Every structure is written in C-alpha cells, then in structure tokens.
C-alpha cells in the first residue's frame, strides 16, 4: 500500500468508524432484538420471525402504513409544486425584495416540528372555530376532530414547513441555467410558459431527484408534527407509522415487537427510495 492509499484511508477512518458505531452496530443489534420478546430490560424468549408475522396481521400497524402512504403522496406532490413555484417567483428579474421573500419562505423550516404542531393545532381549533362562529360556515368547525380534517391538517402543516426548504434547492439549480438559453428563447418569441417547459423544466431534472428524495424520506418518518397536531386521533385514525412504533415500544413496552415494525418500515422506505432515485435518474439521462 503506497503513501497515497494510506493517507486516503487515514482520513476516511473517522467517517467509517462513525458509520459503524451510529449505523451498522445499531442496525444489527436492532435486527436481533426484533426477533425476541425484549421489553427494554430483558429477553425471555427468542421468537424468530414471530414478531414480523404478527406485525403483518396487526390492523393498527397496517392502517398506519396506509395512512402514512396517502399522506406522503399528497404532501410530496404539494411541497414540490409549491416549492418550485416559490423558486420561480423569487428568481424573476432582479428585485431587491427577492432575498427578503426567500428568507420569509424558508423561515418555517427553522421551527421545530413539535412547536409547529402546537401552533397549527391552535390555528385549526381556536382560530378556525372563531371564524366558523363569526361566519356560520360549517367548514371551519370541528377541525382535527375527524380523520379527513386531521389528514389535511397534517398535509397543510408539512407543506408549510417544507416548501421553503425545497424552494432553496430549486433556486440553486435555476440559477445554474445558462442565461444565454433564456435570452435565445426570448429572442425567438417564446412565452414564459414555453421557456419554463422547454428549457427550465428539463434542466431541473437533477433537482427533482434530490427534492423528491428529501420530501419522501421526511414525509414517511414524520413524528413530532403528528404527535403535537392530532396525537393520532381520533381513535388512532391519523396515527402514522413512526407514532405507532413509538407507542408500541414505550407505552405498551413491547420493544422487540416495535423493533420488528421499525425494520419493516426501514425496508419499505429503502425500497421506495431506491425505486424513486432510479426512475428520476433515468429521466435525467433521457432528458
């Protein structure tokens, strides 16, 4: 091994050690515990795949997976559409207010999820109720008391929090589009929509890959906002997977069973992420 190789591995060693300690060892340990009846203190029995078989028959767990999937699809769609729209808005002709708007749109991402949940809980319950009482419009009454309004409440909260963050990603790619292409389109008489669809949109393909991955992973693992906004109610109908796993581990004290659910959840997210990245990467090449 030459000196260059030695220095390479020397600099890489701290990162590899960190990954082993933080990722690999907990993953292996968790996989082992998922096949036991561990309650947080001791293991009395090795169950093999028993916890996994039980999880696939657990209606509450399967319901939380379905609810999380629906939420993720809708939230990812809205976050990327609004994030891209905001990016296009603040990258128009030079405007002194653009930087101010970027800051304002990004600020919700700086607020913790638990705080956001309580803020929007107040808005949906107190503010909406006041508007409903003043106007007599039933739409504003009883928010978060049903599965449907709880679902859309979570979507609104997540979109409000993530759109500014995704906007920054799109801005970085929009700013790298050669001005010559935009000017050539203007000279040829292209409309704003034609310029966006034929020039900007294809060149934003790498941004879509990054943004979809980030929104997908964040939407699936959401917990703080779910806890603060609805706490899974009513009757666990808005309970997402992360909350289901946490409740199983710390409320019921079935940590081995909860770990099996976590492993299943990890596999689901990994498969979806790999499929998403492969599809969007292929589109980048096609474009």
Automatic annotation (TrEMBL):
It is found in: Cell membrane. Residues 65-276 form the ABC transmembrane type-1 domain. Its main location: membrane. InterPro entries: ABC_transporter_permease, MetI-like, MetI-like_sf. It is a multi-pass membrane protein. The chain crosses the membrane at residues 7-33, 71-90, 110-131, 151-173, 262-279. One of its GO terms (biological process) is transmembrane transport. GO terms for cellular component: plasma membrane. It comes from the Bacteria. This is ABC transporter permease.
